[in-house]
Description:
The structure is a homodimer. Helix content of chain A is 43%, strand content 20%. By secondary structure, the first copy, chain A, is an alpha+beta fold. The first copy, chain A, has 2 domains: 22-57 and 111-364, BirA Bifunctional Protein, domain 2 (2-Layer Sandwich), CATH 3.30.930; 378-465, Anticodon-binding domain (Rossmann fold). In chain A, the strands form 3 sheets. In chain A, strands 2-6-7-12-11-10-8-9 form an 8-stranded mixed β-sheet. In chain A, 42% of the residues are buried. Chains A and B meet through helix 1, strand 1, helix 2, strand 2 and strand 3 of A and helix 1, strand 1, helix 2, strand 2 and strand 3 of B. Strand 2 (49-52) of chain A pairs antiparallel with strand 1 (24-25) of chain B, so a sheet runs across the interface.
Amino acid sequence: xxxxxxxxxxxxxxxxxxxxxxxxxxxxxxxxxxxxxxxxxxxxxxxxxxxxxxxxxxxxxxxxxxxxxxxxxxxxxxxxxxxxxxxxxxxxxxxxxxxxxxxxxxxxxxxxxxxxxxxxxxxxxxxxxxxxxxxxxxxxxxxxxxxxxxxxxxxxxxxxxxxxxxxxxxxxxxxxxxxxxxxxxxxxxxxxxxxxxxxxxxxxxxxxxxxxxxxxxxxxxxxxxxxxxxxxxxxxxxxxxxxxxxxxxxxxxxxxxxxxxxxxxxxxxxxxxxxxxxxxxxxxxxxxxxxxxxxxxxxxxxxxxxxxxxxxxxxxxxxxxxxxxxxxxxxxxxxxxxxxxxxxxxxxxxxxxxxxxxxxxxxxxxxxxxxxxxxxxxxxxxxxxxxxxxxxxxxxxxxxxxxxxxxxxxxxxxxxxxxxxxxxxxxxxxxxxxxxxxxxxxxxxxxxxxxxxxxxxxxxxxxxxx
Amino acid sequence: xxxxxxxxxxxxxxxxxxxxxxxxxxxxxxxxxxxxxxxxxxxxxxxxxxxxxxxxxxxxxxxxxxxxxxxxxxxxxxxxxxxxxxxxxxxxxxxxxxxxxxxxxxxxxxxxxxxxxxxxxxxxxxxxxxxxxxxxxxxxxxxxxxxxxxxxxxxxxxxxxxxxxxxxxxxxxxxxxxxxxxxxxxxxxxxxxxxxxxxxxxxxxxxxxxxxxxxxxxxxxxxxxxxxxxxxxxxxxxxxxxxxxxxxxxxxxxxxxxxxxxxxxxxxxxxxxxxxxxxxxxxxxxxxxxxxxxxxxxxxxxxxxxxxxxxxxxxxxxxxxxxxxxxxxxxxxxxxxxxxxxxxxxxxxxxxxxxxxxxxxxxxxxxxxxxxxxxxxxxxxxxxxxxxxxxxxxxxxxxxxxxxxxxxxxxxxxxxxxxxxxxxxxxxxxxxxxxxxxxxxxxxxxxxxxxxxxxxxxxxxxxxxx
Lengths: 466, 466
């Protein structure tokens, strides 16, 4: 008895969206597009072109690109038709999970926007010409455990430049973020800047071999577990006490941005990789100092490590001041975008806006404009269904003049029709009974001011057009 | 040796999109959005709200909704993690394809926009209030054999009204189609109109039991196989000779729209369903006669049957005159949208634009405007990389004034930089060497007119802003 579902529960379950996915109706779409349009507009002003790639990719395009964890979180699509065709009864054993999976699956859902972009560049770089700048705003899918603010289907907004080593491209993401976040009226932000070569320089100066990844993985947790936590993690990962001290001192380098860079130059005087990183940081900073930023403080943050191993130069993360939300944009430079697809030596640099987080912050801080989407302007009230042909004509004349209009489909009580207008945020109602239809003079009521006047149609059109 | 791949073929294969899917870059996205924006704008003027549903749905939401063929064409998503969990080794047999499939799959890809809309209405009709008008422009996926013009991932553009029996809603799709196709400058179109009740009336007058579906399936092929072909098909489906004669006579009813309707009224004098269909046709026609249509001829077409069985009233298909493309929009009225999701008595009526076909026609007839998307306005030429900080500043000042700008990232030969501008459709180049940077007067060259003048930045901004 305890497990019996009520009819409501049963209905709930058959009408549910798949776990971790959402329907988006008018208000949410309009708010989301408000964010996307600002991002789109800014990217286009900087010469980025739109790109869209398919939702389904050949499974080989995706596997092995996102590490062990990513492989587990990929949504896999079953082969069409006889998906067991290539298997023998002998292969069909519960202990052959991976073997069966690779035989019955031939496609997967887009997991991020970077790998499809890399595939696209590898396929088309000849015609496109490099450098090529693209932005891409599309959903991705991950079989993650859904949680507050974490979905299995969510949007990413990426901008990348492929085929250039120019650090102007890295630096350009700073005014891009500044412009988008200023336009969205977000709180002031901190653009944290670091360089993987600086971290690699530090790692190569330590006694532990191949220390870079272990070191950055630990440093990356500084925000979460604090300095002591990082030290403990480093110890567990086999760093000697004097190495840990070196890392601690490195993270503690302070002063303004130029102080930090000068400090790094001295530190890496005899370490060419670390020194190169300091020089790159200096060049990127130099560009941004040429321009006024409205909303953004650029800070060299030596504790910024970025978990992903493919970054090789500039790395960055953007956080909003006094907002507890983590990074709302991030990215960096990578030496080789397309090698996995057989094309070598295509460096790139990119930025990803955390659009879902930006949306959540804007909701929390009430930053969306009040009437963000268009509402219908006027409701043609239905006094009597026998007038429907005249209402149909009236509505059409309004629409032909560019005014959005709806006819109330039923001749229900006037109060009910007014509620309909209110619910749909319609400001005006046009009331026409026998008399009005004969005279060609209609009652136009403004539901905000409460004003009501009799007017002919051309006067109504003139008034509603402003 | 014959099967050895060249390195190019190997690269081709790893960079391919999945079968039947496509990448969309700038030009295609802008053309597609040109169509979508007209559809969107028109729907909104008629009071339709946007809706988006998830790409992945629980598999139970999809199976059994699209017939046997649809079930085969669904893309199915493998359960995450141990997908074999609920199976025993005994179940894992090649002859247990469907059993295994239903155990290892829990989600599927959106196959059309109607079923997700029905699920959404069943879930939310309480809060939404009915009638509810939505439009939805999203891709769908079908594991069809790809062919010219047929893809496995393609866009649908649907508008539906849920929760009304008012035939004004049916009639409204006529000016909607007229407005969209006029705006797109498409050739004149024929809006073919019929009513399922008329066909049901005819079927009930025949000697064959449950003749409706067999009859409409045969009639639906008239365009493809001709009148003789339809007769043969009817014979094969077990219709008697005098029934076939009746159907032939019915399809041959001619005259103008009102002649046809009067003929139907006489024919169905004693057949309430057929008569009701004739009256509905008359009402819909009556509405459209109230309004001027710019591009569309409305024709009562008694041979129009629409294959889908869920239509119960008005049905329609739109074809372009003198264009060999089949229907470019279609739809109809259905008595019950949401019954499969446990909510009864929600009638609806909808229209689907064949956006891919419209795109193809517009390409063929060269109907897209010449410069449909925005190009970058000005390229800052790179005379010497040592001036990069100044170029960075110049580009930023242009962008801050709302002018899209790019810096050429390398100080290559001028000719190469001009080719870059040409390829990216950039009209102006700004040239600044040592002299110009010192004086604050830059060479602005219009690549279309060939004109070149030295100007300060504010003059350049004024000129490029128009």
